[in-house]
Write a structure and sequence with these properties.
Length: 422
């Protein structure tokens, strides 16, 4: 984006904030997540907006797990409750919740909207209406212990899942001689949305398709998808503990950050925490693309966005808060302090951001080409599809089914959910 356009957008936002501060002060309630540094950074950003405008922000602490959060949101919105003005929305939710949110397309200048990645804006657009503004984006990454790779003779991160398994086993066996709690690889194995994200990466990287393709066709029942799930199951009790099937993001991070794992699949937020003063592995962490299963690397697109409830009694102030928090100033702060990936293109060339998060530049293509979950083609039925997928993958990881039986049943389940059409 040209500098003049950025300046115009910033000036417009400044005028909006000034206008908000001149009107009667109101209280806005915002729902924020609590994973890692998320809650504190949400509070800090909201406080900065409140100071600029003279308004007050109450923070509603949402559940950690995305499934629990969505269930709570649906209850609030179905009741047309005005208790929450601003919602933090997962990238896969706009199609499910669109009828409950203000169309920001007519409320936010085009220059502000166009500063964000086009693909993320598209994901937040339903029937040509902009349901939310992007706050931060995500893509799955492989974290590894640089010191342990060197100790055991490895010069770089694994390029394939097979290499990861070999390296993780060698390091695990060596470290367990002095640390029985040590494990090779941790990831999000609990039956919830996080497992769907991990499974998408396994399946796509093996060439198994995207579960449901862009046309709405169910594609999961194939040998490559089955192999991907069987491969993941082979990690359990060999390079991953049996308990990994109960891990969410924070459980995996806790083990890795305590120095008890060689590799971890997680989101970018784990970087800043791993480099914190209280981390046992500060300065010993590397980040790389997730390995390939033979069909290239795949990282699931994640990320969160901010939308304004149609039932809010303070919509103007709520929109002002959303515009401020998703603007370049706040996104830069969040990138530097919390390793949250910006959705504003220009920040990936910002020297301050890259100094704190060097992998933002080297892994830029991972973030810009991340694989979407099938929320687009499945529309309002995505939550049912996601749960069916999580159940199927859990069956394989826990040994109840082999990959081929699981993908065949999943295909039948998704076809039933689809009915005559999405």
């Amino acid at each position: 984006m040209r500098k003049s356009t950025r300046c115009l957008a910033a000036a417009t936002l400044a005028l909006t904030l000034a206008s908000a501060s001149q009107s009667q002060a109101v209280t806005v309630t915002m729902a924020c997540g609590t994973v890692g540094m998320e809650l504190q950074m949400c509070k800090d950003g909201a406080a900065r907006w409140a100071k600029k405008t003279g308004n007050t922000v109450n923070i509603f602490e949402s559940p950690n797990l995305t499934n629990d959060r969505l269930g709570l949101y649906k209850q609030q919105l179905a009741a047309k409750s005005s208790d929450i003005d601003v919602y933090q929305l997962d990238i896969v939710w706009p199609g499910q919740l669109a009828q409950h949110f203000v169309n920001l397309k007519t409320k936010v200048p085009a220059a502000e909207v166009n500063a964000h990645f086009k693909g993320i804006i598209a994901a937040n657009t339903v029937d040509n209406q902009l349901m939310a503004l992007p706050w931060f984006t995500d893509a799955g990454l492989l974290y590894y212990r640089t010191d342990l790779l060197a100790k055991y003779g490895y010069k770089s991160a694994p390029k394939t899942w097979a290499e990861l398994a070999t390296m993780a086993k060698k390091i695990q066996d060596g470290e367990q001689k002095t640390n029985k709690a040590f494990t090779g690889f941790v990831f999000q194995g609990k039956n919830y949305e996080g497992l769907v994200c991990d499974a998408m990466e396994w399946i796509v990287s093996h060439g198994g398709g995207t579960v449901v393709d862009a046309s709405g066709k169910v594609t999961i029942n194939n040998a490559k998808a089955a192999k991907a799930l069987d491969t993941a199951a082979s990690w359990i009790r060999t390079i991953s503990p049996a308990g990994v099937t109960t891990y969410g993001e924070e459980e995996a991070r806790g083990i890795f950050q305590a120095g008890n794992a060689a590799f971890m699949r997680n989101w970018p937020y784990a970087w800043a925490l791993g480099q914190g003063d209280d981390s046992k592995i500060k300065g010993k962490i590397g980040v790389a693309p997730l390995p390939s299963g033979g069909a290239g690397n795949a990282a699931t697109l994640g990320g969160w966005n901010l939308g304004v409830s149609k039932y809010s009694k303070n919509q103007d102030a709520a929109i002002s808060l959303v515009r401020y928090l998703t603007g370049p100033e706040e996104q830069k702060i969040r990138a530097i302090e919390g390793a949250y990936n910006p959705t504003i293109v220009s920040l990936y060339k910002d020297k301050d951001v890259l100094a704190k998060n060097p992998f933002f530049g080297s892994l830029y293509s991972v973030f810009t080409s991340a694989v979407a979950r099938p929320s687009g083609p499945t529309k309002t039925k995505y939550n049912q599809v996601s749960q069916a997928m999580a159940n199927a993958v859990t069956d394989v990881l826990t040994g109840k089914k082999k990959g081929q039986a699981a993908v065949a049943k999943l295909s039948a389940d998704i076809t039933r959910i689809k009915g005559r059409a999405w």
